[in-house]
Amino acid sequence: MSGTLPAPLAEIVDDFAAVEGQDKITMLLEFSKELPALPAGLEQAAMEPVPECQSPLFLSVDSSDRSAVRLYFSAPPEAPTTRGFASILAQGLDGLPADDILDVPDDFYTELGLAAAVSPLRLRGMSAMLSRVKQHLRS
User: Fold this and answer.
1) Among 108, 102, 100, 113, CA closest to 127
2) What CATH topology corresponds to 7-37+49-138?
3) What does the DSSP 8-state code read for residue 67?
4) pLDDT per residue as tens digits for the range 102-135
């Protein structure tokens, strides 16, 4: 895997690596409950949809301060896997410098060890979320 994981994201990956099997899904569901609410003034309608996700997911990238990029995600409560992935990215990358986010390997999610428990289509959704964040930072 090329690139490096910023400390907050590396810690999340380590937490997932420390548990086995069904406990990984339990941890993902816990993350889904921790997805930060959208800030006042940011409406889902103003956010970018991520159509690669199986469930409705919207994101907003505020890179006006490239030393502290803000990431916002919106996904319905009935989509816990998608919410969990969004929460991992929010908790692992929000507030970091743009260059640190751009350095995250596109396939970092494979280190979470969820391939046996989550469909490849859902895993591609997480990859798409990170890819879209990076597109915003490159433009």
Assistant:
1) 108
2) Sufe protein. Chain: A (3.90.1010)
3) T
4) 999 999 989 999 888 888 888 888 899 999 999 9
